[in-house]
UniProtKB/TrEMBL annotation:
Keywords: Cell junction, Cell membrane, Membrane, Tight junction, Transmembrane, Transmembrane helix. The lineage of its organism: Eukaryota, Metazoa, Chordata, Craniata, Vertebrata. Claudins function as major constituents of the tight junction complexes that regulate the permeability of epithelia. This is Claudin. The chain crosses the membrane at residues 82-106, 118-145, 165-186. It comes from Orycteropus afer afer. It is found in: Cell junction, Tight junction; Cell membrane. It is a multi-pass membrane protein. Belongs to the claudin family. It comes from the Eukaryota. It holds the Pfam family PMP22_Claudin. InterPro entries: Claudin (IPR006187), Claudin_CS (IPR017974), PMP22/EMP/MP20/Claudin (IPR004031). One of its GO terms (cellular component) is bicellular tight junction.
Length: 220
């Protein structure tokens, strides 16, 4: 029963981490970190991401323009690009390392200590991946709130608001953090004797060989 619970915790943690990693990649390239609705022209909406700005018009459709220079971007967008790339890399390595540490995988089953270390390392990498997603998403959201309530900007000027990518990024970050914590909890829990079946088979084979040699008890 303990083995089944341990394996289930590992699988749930790995699936949550995989979901968070996929959503993190989507967040990186989705041009909806900020939304801008024009009151004067309700048929025109603006969106901004880490790589481009888009305008959506009912008659023309979507038109996007990439940012001309990385150095000309605001600080939060520049740092967000770097952290999102770092998060995607950490998530990929964490998933691969955690996969080799799963108890249900027969590779390295005679080395439980090594599998435990791989599982812990993968959980830490996935946890770090989640944190590096939450930092840029929360930073951009904080700057958006500050600019929205900035009293120095005239009220007639349109304000940027939260885009869908921010909510996807928050969900991705919490999924990665929770998945990494579950993997670490599963690795640190009491390990069940996975190789008990191998010992039983080996003991039977030893008894059979001893009987063939005429010895009644192999321990004698």
């Amino acid at each position: 029963m303990a083995l089944v619970f341990r394996i289930a915790m590992q699988l749930v943690g790995l699936l949550l981490s995989l979901l968070g990693w996929v959503l993190s990649i989507i967040t990186t390239y989705l041009p909806h970190w900020k939304n801008l609705n024009l009151e004067l022209n309700e048929m025109e909406n603006w969106t901004m991401g880490l790589w481009q700005t888009c305008v959506i018009q009912e008659e023309v459709g979507r038109q996007c323009k990439d940012f001309d220079s990385f150095l000309a971007l605001p600080a939060e967008l520049k740092i967000s690009r770097i952290l999102m790339f770092l998060s995607n890399g950490l998530g990929l390595v964490g998933l691969l390392v955690s996969g080799f540490g799963l108890d249900c995988l027969r590779i390295g089953e005679r080395q439980p200590d090594l599998k435990k270390q791989l599982l812990i390392l993968g959980g830490v990498l996935l946890w770090a991946s989640g944190i590096t997603v939450l930092i840029p998403v929360s930073w951009v959201a904080h700057v958006t709130v500050q600019e929205f309530w900035d009293e120095t900007i005239p009220e007639i000027v349109p304000r940027w608001e939260f885009g869908e990518a921010l909510f996807i990024g928050w969900f991705a970050g919490f999924s990665l953090v929770l998945g990494g914590c579950l993997l670490n909890c599963a690795a640190c829990s009491a390990q069940a004797p996975l190789a008990a079946g191998h010992y039983t088979v080996a003991e039977i084979q030893t008894q059979c060989s001893c009987l063939e040699k005429g010895t009644a008890d192999p321990k004698v």
